[in-house]
C-alpha cells in the first residue's frame, strides 16, 4: 500500500518488505517523537504504510477543533525556530470542585510543551505545574490548568503561547480515560516509582513496577501523597509517558497489526486535536522524525518560584520570570540543547 500521492517520501524510506534490519530499526524509532501517549500512538500507527488506510479510518474518530485567539488574547507570538506541540491530559471535574473554583468543564492536570528541534534530532518535553499562577486572557490571574475549563483548547493554547513567548503549532488533548485504555491495550507499562505509597486502593513500591491502566491512572493523578506535591506528580506523569514510549517501540507492538489497530481505536475516541493535525500532517511528522532515538527525548520542568498563598487565600505556584526568560529564549531560538545541558542535566 502506497502513501498518499501528494506526499513526497524520502529516498531512504524503504518499502516495509525490505529485509534490511537497519531500515526496520530506523523506522521503529520514527515513532517516539510525539511525546504524549495519544500523539505518539497516532503518529506511529499512521506512519506504518502497510496499514495506512485502515488506520486512517481509526484516526478519523479523533475530535478536531479550530484554534483561534479572541480580542483580549493579544497578538500571537512571532515564529521561532523548531516546532512546538501542546499536549494536555484532562480530567472531568466534579460539580463540587467546579462550583468552588467558579469554572466548568475539564481541567488540564497534565500540561506538557513538546519542542522539536529544527533539525528533527532532539525532542524536549517540558511539564507545567497545574497550579502555576499566570495571566489567563479575559480572566486575570489564575492557575494555568483552569484555562482549559474557562475557554477550552483555544484558551489553553493562547495562555501557554503568551506565557512561553513561542507559537504552538499543534495541540492534542486526551481524556484520562483514554490513558487508562491505552495502557491496558499495551498490556501494561513499566514505570519507575519514586517511593512507597498508596493511591485509590493501589499500592506502589519504590523501584520499577509494572502497572495496568487503572494503576497507571491513579499513579499520574496522585499528588497529596508526596512532600513535593504537584512537582512529583509531574515527574510521575513523565515516568508513565516514558513507559508508554518504551512499550510502543517494542518489536511485538510494531509487528502486530491487530494490536496497532486496537491501540489507536482505543485512544482515538478520547482525543481532541486542532484541525490542522490531520492524518497527512501526522504522516509527514512521523517521517521527519524517523531518526529519533529514545535517548533523544529529554524531560524537564518549567522554572518556578515555588508554592505560596495569594491574598485571596488560594494556594498556587509562583513564576520565576528571570529563569523563565532563559527558557523562552531557548525555545524561540531553538537552543534547547544548551539550555538543557546548563540548567537541567547538571542540576
UniProtKB/TrEMBL annotation:
Pfam name, any one: LytR_cpsA_psr
Q: Per the record's keyword annotation, is Translocase included, yes or no?
A: no
NCBIfam families membership: lytR_cpsA_psr (TIGR00350)
Q: Where are the bilayer-spanning segments?
A: 29-52
**Protein name as annotated:** LCP family protein
Report the source organism.
Answer: Brachybacterium rhamnosum
The alphabetical list of record keywords is: Membrane, Transmembrane, Transmembrane helix
| InterPro entries in the cross-refs | LytR/CpsA/Psr_CW_biosynth (IPR050922), LytR_CpsA_psr (IPR004474)
Annotated family: Belongs to the LytR/CpsA/Psr (LCP) family.
Superkingdom classification of source:
Bacteria
Return the Gene3D superfamilies for the record. LCP protein (3.40.630.190)
Q: Where is this region: Disordered?
A: 1-21
The Cell envelope-related transcriptional attenuator domain covers 107-249
Amino acid at each position: 500500500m502506497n502513501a498518499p500521492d501528494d506526499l513526497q517520501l524520502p529516498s531512504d524510506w524503504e518499502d516495509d518488505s525490505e529485509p534490511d534490519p537497519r531500515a526496520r530499526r530506523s523506522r521503529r524509532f520514527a515513532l517516539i517523537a510525539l511525546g504524549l501517549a495519544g500523539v505518539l500512538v497516532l503518529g506511529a500507527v499512521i506512519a506504518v504504510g502497510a496499514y495506512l488506510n485502515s488506520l486512517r479510518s481509526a484516526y478519523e474518530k479523533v475530535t478536531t477543533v479550530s484554534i483561534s485567539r479572541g480580542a483580549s488574547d493579544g497578538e500571537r507570538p512571532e515564529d521561532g525556530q523548531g516546532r512546538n506541540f501542546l499536549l494536555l491530559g484532562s480530567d472531568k471535574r466534579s460539580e463540587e470542585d467546579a462550583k468552588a473554583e467558579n469554572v466548568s468543564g475539564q481541567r488540564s492536570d497534565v500540561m506538557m510543551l513538546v519542542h522539536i528541534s529544527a533539525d528533527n534530532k532532539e525532542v524536549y518535553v517540558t511539564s507545567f505545574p497545574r497550579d502555576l499562577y499566570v495571566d489567563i486572557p479575559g480572566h486575570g490571574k489564575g492557575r494555568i490548568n483552569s484555562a482549559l475549563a474557562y475557554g477550552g483548547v483555544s484558551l489553553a493554547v493562547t495562555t501557554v503561547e503568551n506565557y512561553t513567548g513561542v507559537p504552538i503549532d499543534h495541540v492534542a488533548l486526551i481524556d484520562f480515560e483514554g490513558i487508562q485504555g491505552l495502557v491496558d491495550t499495551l498490556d501494561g507499562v513499566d514505570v519507575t516509582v519514586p517511593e512507597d505509597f498508596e493511591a485509590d486502593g493501589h499500592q506502589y513500591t519504590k523501584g520499577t513496577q509494572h502497572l495496568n491502566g487503572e494503576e497507571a491512572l491513579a499513579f499520574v493523578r496522585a499528588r497529596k501523597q508526596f512532600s513535593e506535591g504537584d512537582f512529583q506528580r509531574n515527574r510521575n506523569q513523565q515516568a508513565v509517558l516514558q513507559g508508554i514510549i518504551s512499550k510502543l517501540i517494542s518489536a511485538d507492538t510494531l509487528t502486530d497489526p491487530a494490536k496497532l489497530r486496537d491501540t489507536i481505536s482505543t485512544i482515538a475516541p478520547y482525543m481532541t486535536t486542532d484541525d490542522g493535525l490531520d492524518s497527512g500532517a501526522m504522516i509527514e511528522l512521523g517521517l521527519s522524525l524517523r531518526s529519533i532515538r529514545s535517548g533523544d527525548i529529554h524531560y524537564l520542568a518549567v522554572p518556578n518560584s515555588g508554592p505560596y498563598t495569594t491574598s485571596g487565600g488560594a494556594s498556587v505556584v509562583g513564576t520565576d520570570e528571570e529563569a523563565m526568560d532563559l527558557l523562552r529564549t531557548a525555545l524561540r531560538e531553538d537552543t534547547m540543547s544548551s539550555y538543557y545541558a546548563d540548567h537541567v542535566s547538571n542540576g
